[in-house]
Design a protein that fits this description.
Length: 354
């Protein structure tokens, strides 16, 4: 089969590799659509993971084979795959910090080599603890692979909104209006919050408005902090979500938050250093929060949100690439243009029988 194989820092090659073999309790997925996530891009750009690997974890496709003892799926089922599922029993699971569970940190989907998701390929092997513990979700008739591929990223966004503990009537600023920023903003509004958004690109504000996000700050021409204060009687937002992986925006995010408010770091997935005002946390009682990856407790709600089409997520997709152009797809995702939003790789675009 074809796969986009990571070979080192900023190096991905289209290669022919063996179709992965499955064992008892496992299933093989024929990949139709896999979204490109920012974490995939960071791993490729920084060389944080050993090579070779096949990345891609926002995977939707059909069941191509089932292993012994698999009874809850059959060949031909249309499904979405989660690459992480926690054990449910360890210290971290008992404390609902699922992303820190040792089993969760083990990746349970692979197209070969060290398990790394594998969705940038034609076939993915899904391991037994993923199959047996709710990590494979059926796609109903009438719902596209593209729409369904958003279940995992929507889950991560729902987890972030849960972390913020939003109350109806609060004002939320979402900094960054890429696909994740828009999803976060829609989910915050769903909780009854007033949502203000900011971004440097007018094209993104135009897309955000099609989702009913109409209070927009053009960060290229306006002072976001001052504008938010002007819109909130001088206080600042009750909560700020930083949906941009720019550490230099942490301080402005805190400045835009009212005393006693909360700041959620959603895109800061690389270790490093950042400047904050410690008195803003101590004296002004502002809370600095983080949220990473998905929550198994939100599995059902995120699936229902996506599969019921409560939000038309396909409209966030700006570019679709066949697997044979996956290197170009990753390049565009890593160096986005003003009109770039969600970029997906689609081995299924070449299917003749679907």
């Amino acid at each position: 089969m074809l796969a986009a194989v990571y070979r080192g820092v900023d190096e991905v090659r289209l290669e022919t590799v063996p179709v992965p073999q499955i064992g008892a309790g496992e299933i093989l997925i024929r990949v139709h659509t896999c979204g490109i996530c920012g974490t995939d891009l960071k791993k490729i750009a920084t060389g944080s993971h050993s090579a070779p690997r096949i990345f891609g974890h926002e995977t939707a496709g059909t069941v191509a084979a089932i292993g012994d003892s698999v009874t809850n799926f059959k060949i031909g089922d249309r499904v979405v795959v989660f690459h992480h599922i926690p054990c449910g029993d360890c210290y971290y699971c008992q404390h609902k910090v699922f992303a820190q569970c040792p089993t969760y940190k083990k990746v349970g989907a692979t197209a070969g080599y060290e398990a790394s998701g594998g969705g940038f390929s034609e076939y993915v092997r899904v391991m037994d603890w993923i199959v047996g513990n709710g990590g494979v979700v059926r796609i109903p008739d009438g719902v596209s692979f593209e729409q369904a591929s958003f279940i995992e990223p929507v889950n991560t966004c729902m987890k972030g909104i849960e972390t913020l503990r939003l109350s109806p009537g609060e004002t939320v600023l979402v900094m960054g209006q890429g696909p994740i920023g828009i999803i976060l903003a829609v989910l915050a509004r769903r909780r009854g919050a007033r949502v203000i958004t900011s971004d440097l690109l007018q094209q993104r504000h135009t897309i955000a408005r099609t989702f009913g996000l109409n209070e927009n700050i053009d960060a290229s021409t306006s002072d976001t902090v001052q504008t938010v204060k002007n819109l909130t009687e001088g206080r600042g937002a009750d909560a700020v979500i930083l949906a941009v992986a720019v550490n230099g925006l942490i301080r402005p995010a805190m400045d835009a938050t009212r005393p006693g408010g909360r700041v959620l770091l959603f895109a800061q997935t690389q270790h490093g250093e950042a400047t904050i005002d410690p008195a803003a946390v101590c004296v002004d009682e502002k809370s600095l929060l983080g949220s990473y990856s998905a929550s198994v407790d939100l599995q059902a709600e995120s699936a229902q949100f996506v599969l019921s089409r409560e939000m038309d997520l396909e409209r966030l997709i700006s570019h679709r690439f066949p697997l044979g152009e996956s290197v170009e797809a990753l390049q565009l995702a890593a160096h986005p243009k003003p009109d770039s939003m969600k970029i997906v790789i689609q081995p299924g675009s070449q299917w003749k029988d679907e």
